[in-house]
Amino acid sequence: MVTFIVGDDEERYEHVSKSLLCIRSVFFRTMFGIGMKERDAAEVTVRNTDLATFTALVRYLCTDQLDLGDEEGGRAQRALDLRQLAQMYQVPRLELLCAQALQESVLPASAVALLEAAHTMGDGRLLAQCRRYVADNAAEVRASGGVEQLRHLGVAKGLLGDALDQVAELKGAVAAREADLKKVRA
């Protein structure tokens, strides 16, 4: 068994089976393998995460169940954080489950934050989904404060480009409609 000391607050996650972690993760198999100091350690320090996210990772490895919590707004952030841990700890199925959860959590209040996170992570699929969502639900996103959440200039430029493309499409549709009306009148 091992106890993890997690994050800057050094919170404890106790009594975790090293054997089970080794079976489910190449990263842990290496960490607890021959020649590694963690093999015989009773405590292992884990940085760059918080206890809730690390607990979700370990619980997934132990139970094969994804738990992002109950708080709707917090689920998207937990999925983002857990996805990064899944990448770090080489758990590809969990990474995919988190990506799916992120795609399902695109809502007016979360769309811009997810868009910026997708841009930062280089997740083209989520980026495209968020851009389309913002374009299709612009009024709702704006009313939820999404526009004020924008921090990344590249993302803002992308959204502006999308808006200009939509304006051009609408102008083209209006021009075509006017041409059709002229034909009908003639």
Automatic annotation (TrEMBL):
One Pfam family recorded for the sequence: BTB
Lineage: superkingdom: Eukaryota
InterPro entries associated with the record: BTB/POZ_dom, SKP1/BTB/POZ_sf
Gene3D superfamilies listed in its UniProt record: Potassium Channel Kv1.1, Chain A
Stretches assigned to the BTB domain: 1-70
Protein name: BTB domain-containing protein
